[in-house]
Amino acid sequence: MAANPQALYSRQAETDASTSGKLLSAKNVTLEYRTPERLVRATHDVSFDVYGADRFVLLGPSGCGKSTLLKAVAGFIEPVAGSIEIGGERVRGPGADRIVVFQEFDQLPPWKTVVQNVIFPLRVARKLSRAEARERALHYLDKVGLAKFADAYPHTLSGGMKQRVAIARALAMQPRVLLMDEPFAALDALTRRRMQEELLRLWSDERFTLLFVTHSIEEALIVGNRILLLTPHPGRVRAELNSHQYTQESMGRGEFQQSVARIHRLLFEEEIAQ
Ligand SMILES: Nc1ncnc2c1ncn2[C@@H]1O[C@H](COP(=O)(O)OP(=O)(O)OP(=O)(O)O)[C@@H](O)[C@H]1O
Ligand SMILES: [Mg+2]
Predict the structure, then answer these.
(1) Where does the chain have alpha helices with state H?
(2) Distance between CA atoms of 71 and 210, rounded to whole angstroms?
(3) I want to staple 57 with a disulfide (CB 3.0 to 4.6 A). Which of 110, 177, 224, 267 is the partner?
(4) Residue from 29, 30, 31, 33 to probe ligand 1 pocket by mutation (most atoms less than 8 Å from CB)
C-alpha cells in the first residue's frame, strides 16, 4: 500500500488544480453576530473567488471581519445574506474538505503525542486504517521537519514547532482548501519569516489551495498570489491585487516597498479621505 506516498497524497490537490476552475466562491456575503445587547455586522457584501492552487489572502485592519469570513468558509457561521460555495455546492456546515489552522499554539490536544495528534483526525474523518494514518502522519511530519519529534508531547515544543504540527495535521487531511487565520502572528519575527518560507516550500511541493488571513501587508505580499483588501469594520471589498511576483527576497526592494505603500494607502488613507 502507498508505495508512492507523494502520488497518493497529492491526488486531491491535483484534481482541484487541474480543473483550475473556481474552487471556492463567496457571493455577496454579509456576516453578523447577534449579542444580547446588539447586532454586530462583521462583513458587508463581500465577494471573491478562489481557484485551485491559489494562495488567496484576506488582508485588512483589525476588526474588519477576516476571522469571521474564514469561520464562514469553514462552516461555523452562516451568512445572513449571500452564499459561500465550494466546488459549486453551498457550504452548510463544517467539513473535512476545509481545515483551519489557528493563531493559538494550544490547538493541539496536550494528552496526545505529536504523531497521535496528526493521526487522530485521519482515523475519525478520513477513516484511514491505523497503519495508513500513521504512515501519512509521519510523511507530513517529515515534510515540516518534525519527524524526530513524532513521540513528543506538545508542551515540550516551541511555538513554531506547535504551528508546524498543526500545519502537518491540516495538510495530512488533504483538504480542498486549507484555511489559516494569522497562523504565524504569535511567533517572533525570525521564526515567522522561516515559517512563511516553509509554507511556500510546502505549497510548491503539494500545490494545495490556501485561504490565508493576515493583517500584515508584508506577509500578505509574500505568502499570497492574490490578495483581497478589506475596508475597516464592517469589512467590504476595497480591492483585489495580484502578488505572485513577490518572495521573501523581494522585501528590501523598491517595487515591494511601493506595493506596501500602495496597499497602506488603500487600507487607511483613502478611507479617511472619503
Ligand atoms: N463572537 C462575537 N460576538 C460578537 N461580535 C463579534 C464576535 N466575534 C467578532 N465580533 C465582531 O465582529 C467584527 C469582526 O471581527 P473579526 O474577529 O472577524 O475581525 P478580524 O478582522 O479577524 O480582526 P483581527 O485582525 O483583530 O483578528 C468585530 O467588530 C468584532 O468585534
Ligand atoms: Mg482575526
Answers:
(1) 5-9, 11-19, 66-74, 114-124, 130-143, 159-172, 189-206, 217-223, 254-264, 270-273
(2) 14
(3) 224
(4) 33
Domain residues of the chain, as ranges? 5-97+175-273
Query: Selecting from 3.40.50.12780, 3.40.50.300, 1.10.150.20, 3.40.50.140, what CATH number does the domain 5-97+175-273 have?
Result: 3.40.50.300
Residue having the nearest C-alpha atom to atom 18 of ligand 1: 65
**Cell numbers at residue 193, please?**
519569516
28 contact partners, CB below 8 Å, separation of at least 6: 45, 46, 47, 81, 82, 83
pLDDT, tens only, 98-148: 999 999 989 999 999 999 999 999 999 999 999 999 999 999 999 999 999
The pTM of the full predicted model, rounded to 2 decimals, is: 0.91
Taking CA atoms only, the protein residue closest to ligand 1 atom 26 is 62
Cα(148) to ligand 2 centroid in Å equals 32
Residues bordering ligand 2, an ion, CB closer than 5 Å: 67
